[in-house]
Amino acid sequence: MPSGSLRFAGDEQSNGTKVPKDRLMMLQFTNMDGSEKQAVVVGKSAKPRCFKNVKTLPFSYFANRRAWMTSQLFTDVMKTLDRKMIAQNRKIILFLDNATCHNLLPGTNLSNIKLSFMPPNTTSLIQPLDQGIIRSFKAYYSRELVRMQIAAIDATPPVPLSEVAKQITVLKAMHMMKRALFMIKPSTIQNCFKRAGFVIESQAEVEEILDENDQVSPPSGMEQTDFDEFISF
Fold first, then answer.
1. Domain DDE-1, which positions (predicted)?
2. Does residue 19 lie in a domain region?
3. What CA–CA distance (Å, rounded) separates 172 from 170?
4. Is residue 118 situated within a structural domain?
């Protein structure tokens, strides 16, 4: 659970409680009109127990010791996407920041994908995902967490939130991530691209549309101000 999580009387975590150490990294990519949203997830465990007997995962899953994206993993992801584009007879261009992990392994050739890297130190200005898409994703994911917490508090008897945290397996987190990703409005994505300069548009008009479409409402029983504070982690 992130800092700022809800609590109820008697739900105290002792110093001896083992804190879950699962960590997931998510690589998101989307097209300009928001009609296609994809992602891959990287975790620490190569074979999480919660994956047993599961035939289909919400996202493609990769693993390494630190749950980080690496050049090897990124190359594997791009090769898979390239094969998909070949099968669909499509050619695409991906705009990326210049993180080291986004370098393909030597000798890697992509026939239907072109990688275009943004100049250094410009991500916050011209990366569409940083213009509000990631923020929206975090807000929707946090709303999923809050709903679980409220349900636990309202249960009879109330369920300690320390127990709720244990229920969030890698698989459950991935399902929550998928719901959050697909809750992002296409209009939000379109206007994040505009704000990043991909379409010539009035800046005032873009910001106005973003303000209108990018507001994530809180779950039932929670005030907007409290929810906004919670998702700011």
1. 22-193
2. no
3. 6
4. yes
Identify whether 205 is part of a domain: yes
Cα-flanking dihedrals φ and ψ of residue 222, to 5°? -130, 135
- Whether 7 is in a domain gets the answer no
Give yes or no for a cis peptide into 157 (omega within 30° of 0). Answer: yes
Q: At what angle do helices 133-154 and 170-183 cross, to 10 degrees?
A: 120
Specify the residue for token string 């106005």.
Answer: 208
Partners of 77 in the beta sheet?
Answer: none
CA dist 40 and 123 (Å) reads 20
State the first-to-last Cα distance of the chain, in angstroms, to the nearest integer: 11
| Structural domain of 149 | 25-230
**Rounded distance between C-alpha atoms, residue 208 and residue 206, angstroms:** 5
What is the tally of structural domains in the chain? 1
Q: Give the three-state DSSP class for 31.
A: coil
Nearest by Cα to 100 from 71, 139, 61: 71
